[in-house]
Design a protein that fits this description.
The chain is of the alpha/beta class. Helix content is about 40%, strand content about 10%.
């Protein structure tokens, strides 16, 4: 028996050492390339994976960190067997303390009361509202720009604004104030989901009261802006440079009535040359391909909603885009590389928005441009806590008549809001009116409402709102996991369809 225990310990020791070092290494990897992450973000990506559909450079970086972890584990194991018992205890404490510190420094769990359901107190279900269209339905272009901080448009930066054309474009429309990023919106799919569905994205299955099998039909439930638009007659398309398979993005779009979806694989299948490295089709070519597709013959008189997600400005330092005359330059600093990536995205998105708005085809147009979430390592970040706390997203809303002339929008003042308020604001900007809970959808309020009802952030502040919405929500799980089955049973019992 002592020999068996000794043999087990002989093999268990290097395994435990490796796991602890791997945990430290994984946290260091996330902080360097993704910045601080939320627990929901980690769990969601564990469920939906996608690293094999990400930028291949991310995989090579991850492998380097893994190789380093193996070497360090081997060295620590060798040392542990040759030092005194006292030093062994010290090494174990160092490894355990390092792992605990790395996790706490990397993963933020802001939940302050796991027993409360903050969503249930405020949520307005879009599927329970009666919508009607006030006036002709416009075409709409919604652009999510990767990691686009508001600070990039500030003219007082030392080298001038990182965004020039989009800042000029926004002068034709409207900015609503400070758009903050809550925890469940702090990564790309979370940002898209929160803006379109009006609730922060929470994981299902893993680390929840639901079985893991439910995650396979996650996204089947709930109601989002795309569902509302599809029911009102809009034809929906999504244009992305990265793979639709990454983090469940394509699944989300398909489940919520975005019938036409384009990502890395779809562009490649159409004969578009997609770079072998990087996240996929870069922004200059992406904007051109999206614009070309927007010129396809119209399906009757149906209005169109086009959603676009860029890739160039993804961290840690962006990607050079040959479509903007750029090439990789190892002499540039990380800030200079990101500034170059921003310059390209700034130009091609502004050009696409102008093309879209200026079509004198008799149909009104609406353009909404926003960052999907704040960048983990923003350009020109000075490292101060105050700047980090006050970070907000670039956003712009503009509306045009059928001859390409800008239309005025109701004055909104300087508001404090989040992704959650995008859903009702865009619905109202498109001319939709609804009852019984006018101006409210999801957890948000319309920033165009004449009464200016307070947003969640205006009522509670950022810290309290973030802490409440970071907690698991039974309502969220009922909406996004349980409801499809429950609604199917109700339909069968009443003999009616959905």
């Amino acid at each position: 028996m002592p020999q068996a225990f000794s043999a087990l310990r002989h093999w268990l020791t290097p395994v435990l050492i490796f796991l602890l070092i791997l945990l430290v290494s994984a946290c260091a990897f996330m902080r360097k390339y993704l910045g601080p992450v939320t627990l929901d973000q980690v769990v969601f990506h564990l469920q939906y994976g996608g690293l094999d559909y990400a930028d291949p450079r991310m995989i090579s970086r991850a492998l380097r960190y893994l190789f380093g972890s193996v070497l360090l584990a081997a060295l620590a194991t060798w040392a542990l067997r040759r030092i005194s018992l006292r030093l062994q205890r010290g090494l174990w404490l160092l490894l355990l303390g390092g792992a605990a510190f790395s996790v706490s420094a990397t993963v933020d769990d802001a939940c302050d009361d796991a027993q409360a359901d903050a969503m249930a107190q405020r949520y307005v279900d879009p599927s329970a509202q009666q919508f009607e269209q006030a006036g002709p339905a416009p075409d709409v272009l919604i652009v999510f720009i990767e990691s686009l901080d508001e600070r990039y448009a500030e003219p007082r930066l030392a080298h001038g604004p990182a965004l020039t054309e989009l800042a000029d474009w926004r002068a034709r429309g409207q900015r609503f104030g400070a758009m903050r990023t809550l925890g469940g919106s702090s990564w790309t799919v979370g940002g898209l989901f929160s803006a379109l569905c009006g609730v922060p994205l929470q994981p299902v299955g893993l680390m929840s009261r639901h079985a893991l099998e439910y995650s396979t039909r996650f996204f089947d439930g709930g109601a989002c802006l795309t569902d509302v638009l599809a029911r009102q007659g809009w034809e929906l398309s999504f244009y992305g440079g990265a793979s639709l398979k990454f983090a469940g993005k394509g699944l989300f779009m398909s489940k919520h009535q975005v019938a036409r979806r384009f990502g890395r694989e779809q562009w490649h299948g159409q004969g578009v040359e997609v770079p072998g490295e990087g996240w996929g089709l870069l922004d200059a070519e992406l904007a051109e391909e999206a614009w070309a597709d927007m010129q396809r013959p119209r399906d009757g008189d149906r209005p169109r909603a086009s959603l676009l997600l860029t890739v160039n400005t993804h961290g840690p330092s962006g990607t050079a885009d040959p479509g903007c005359g750029q090439s990789e330059d190892g002499e540039l600093s990380a800030d200079e590389q990101m500034a170059r990536a921003l310059a390209c995205t700034d130009h091609v998105v502004a050009r696409l928005a102008k093309r879209f708005a200026s079509q004198a085809d008799g149909r009104r147009k609406l353009v909404w441009i926003m960052g999907d979430h704040v960048g983990p390592t923003p350009l020109l970040f000075d490292g101060t806590d105050e700047q980090w706390r006050n970070r907000s997203l670039f956003h712009s809303l503009a509306r045009f008549d059928g001859k390409g002339r800008a239309e005025s929008l109701p004055a909104a003042g300087q508001r404090t809001f989040s992704h959650l308020d995008v859903l009702p604001t865009l619905a109202e900007a498109l001319g939709l009116r609804w009852q019984p809970q006018a101006h409210r959808l999801g957890l948000g309020v319309s920033l165009l409402a004449q009464e200016q009802p307070p947003t969640l952030l205006e009522q509670q502040g950022f810290e309290r709102s973030n802490a409440q919405l970071a907690c698991p929500s039974p309502l969220f799980h009922r909406l996004w996991v349980d409801r499809p089955q429950a609604e199917g049973e109700r339909s069968r019992s009443t003999g009616t369809g959905a």
